[in-house]
TrEMBL record:
GO MF: actin monomer binding
Family assignment from sequence similarity: Belongs to the profilin family.
Pfam families: Profilin
Organism from which the protein derives: Adineta steineri
Top-level taxonomic group: Eukaryota
Name of protein: Profilin
Length: 120
């Protein structure tokens, strides 16, 4: 178990279905069991934070862009939500099955702010 696992566990213990921390290069630092596949993760994350975001593809299904606020984006696919928080060196991704994305923002952003303040 890496030190990053504790942050993922914290998120999933708050009811988030899937959580992961990924380096800016797309490498996995930690992820919950059965975290969905995001092919070309680095490219998808760049698209999510571009000036004209349209969404990202997870397990072959597109999550559409809802809003961008400072260091995070909110996405949605039907009843499922996703929040991606951008750190200095990494990204935190939270996915909630049958959860509105707004329910994911608080917990994900809180851990993101902490890690960003620690230099990550």
């Amino acid at each position: 178990m890496s030190g990053w696992d504790q942050y993922v566990t914290n998120l999933t213990s708050q009811g988030i279905t899937h959580a992961g921390i990924f380096g800016a290069d797309g490498s996995k630092w930690a992820a919950s069991p059965h975290f969905p596949s995001i092919e070309h993760l680095k490219d998808e994350l760049s698209k999510a934070f571009s000036s004209t975001p349209s969404g990202i593809v997870v397990n072959g299904e597109k999550y559409i862009f809802i809003r961008n606020q400072d260091n995070f984006v909110v996405l949605r696919k039907g009843a499922d939500g996703m929040v991606i928080v951008k750190l200095n060196q990494a990204y935190i991704i939270s996915i909630g099955v049958n959860q509105k994305p707004e329910m994911l923002v608080g917990a994900t952003n809180k851990i993101g702010e902490y890690l960003k303040n620690c230099g990550y």
